[in-house]
Amino acid sequence: MRTITSSLVALSFAACSGAPADAPRADAECATCHPTQAAAFVVSAHARAPESDLFRALRDRADPDTRAFCDRCHAPHAAPGERGVGCVTCHTAIATRGVSNGRLVMGDGDEMLGGFDDARATPAHASRRSGFIRSAALCGTCHEVAGPGALVETPFSEWSRSPARAAGVTCVDCHMSTSPGTTSTAHARGPAALDGPERQLSDHAFVGPEHPRASELLQRAASIAVAVTRRDGDALAIDVTVTNRNPGHALPSGARFAREVWVELVAVDALGGRHIVTGGLDARGAPVEGDTQRIDLGDRVTRSGVAALPLDADAPAVRAIPAGERRAYRLRVPAAWEGAATVSLAARLRYRRNAWALREALGLAPDVAPPVDLARAEAAAP
Q1: SS3 readout for the chain
Q2: Is the pLDDT of residue 162 over 50?
Q3: What are the residue boundaries of the structural domains of the chain, listed by start?
Q4: Phi and psi torsions of 331, nearest 5°
Q5: Is the pLDDT of residue 4 over 70?
Q6: Predicted local confidence at residue 121, as pLDDT
C-alpha cells in the first residue's frame, strides 16, 4: 500500500521546480504539491486496488490472459515500485475505447488534466481543463466490466438509464462529495495545489462501499418497510419492501458477485423471546443453513445451477434492485412460538462487502469488517 507521511509532504519542491522526469510520475511526486488530495487518495480503494486479499485470491486462480485483463483496471498506470490506480490514470486520460474493461486512452504524461477553467502551467507539468475527467465515461471505463464467468459489473449501464443521469448527476458528484452519496452543494474550499488560488475542491477519497468512511455512503443507500398483511392458518403473511434510495445505480452495484446484501427478519413473542425467521448468521458468521426464505440481493453465482467461483461460473443471475426502484417480498412467520403469540416484527437490511461463502470457497478467513445495517423497520403483529 502506498503511504504518504508528514515527512513526504514536507519534502522540498524538487518535483515542482524541476523538469518532468521521463519515468511515469509517482503518486509521491504529485503529493509534494497536492498534499490534501494525496492524503485523501492514499486510503481510497483506488490506491489499494490490487491489494485486497479477495482480489489476489481470485487473480491467483486466473489464467495469464485473465490476470492481464484484471490488471488493466487494478494496476494500470503506476510508477516503478508502485501498484494500483495512480494519479496519472485519471489526470492524463483523454478518452475511452468503449466504456468498459479498462480501455482508457492516455494523453501526454507531462500534461495534467483537471476540472478548472483557469488551469495554469507549472514548472512540474502543463495543465489543461478537461470535461472527460468529470464524466461518467471515465469512471465507467473501469467500473463497467464484462469479464469471464460471473466477473460482471454494470454501474455505468445502470447509471445510463437512471434518474441521476436524467438529472445531470454523474459519479463524481456523489463519490467525490464532502457528503458521500449526496450531491451536496457544500464543498470544501482551498488551494488545489500549494500556493495556488482558493477553489471548490473535490474529495479524492472516492468514498465507496469498501472505504473506511463507507457508512456515510451506505446509510443513504436504502430503506426497508415491514407489514403484516393477513393471518394464514398458523402463520402470518408478512410483506417486506426494500427501496433503493440511490438514484444512480442498483442496490447492490459494482462487484455484485462478491457483495452480500440481505434481509434479516426477527419475530418477537409475547414473552419477549426473539426468533430469527430469516437472514440469520451462525457462530462463524455464515448464513444459517436451510434458510429457505432468505432474501439476498447479491448476484447468484452458479455453474449449471450449482454454486461456483466467479471465474468458473455461468453468467450471473442478477437480483439487485435498479436505481430508485423498490421490491416487495412475501414471507411467512409463525403466529405463535410454543404458545407465545408473535407480537411484533423487526427487519434489517444488512450489507457485507465480501460474501461469506465466496471467501470460504477461496480459503480466506472471514472478512474483518462486520456487517453494516443499511436500514431498519418494525411493525406490530395484530
Answers
A1: CCCCCHHHHCCCCHHHHCCCCCCCCCHHHHHCCCHHHHHHHCCCCCCCCCCCHHHHHHHHCCCHHHHHHHHHHHCCCCCCCCCCCCHHHHHCEEEECCCCCCCEEECCCCEEEECCCCCCCCCCCEEEECCHHHCHHHHHHHHCEECCCCCEECHHHHHHCCHHHHCCCCHHHHHCCCCCCCCCCCCCEEECCCCCCEEECCCCCCCCCCCCCHHHHHCCCEEEEEEEEEEECCEEEEEEEEEECCCCCCECCCCCCCCEEEEEEEEEECCCCEEEEECCECCCCCECCCCCCCCECCCECEECCEECCHHHCCCCECCCECCCCEEEEEEEEECEECCEEEEEEEEEEEEECCCHHHHHHCCCCCCCCCCEEEEEEEEECC
A2: yes
A3: 6-209, 221-380
A4: -125, 160
A5: no
A6: 73
Give dist(CA 259, CA 221) in Å, integer: 14
Q: What is the mean pLDDT of residues 89-96?
A: 94
> What pTM was estimated for this model as a whole?
0.89
Predicted local distance difference test score (pLDDT) of residue 122: 82
User: What's the half-sphere exposure (Cβ side, CA atoms, 13 Å) at 116?
Assistant: 16
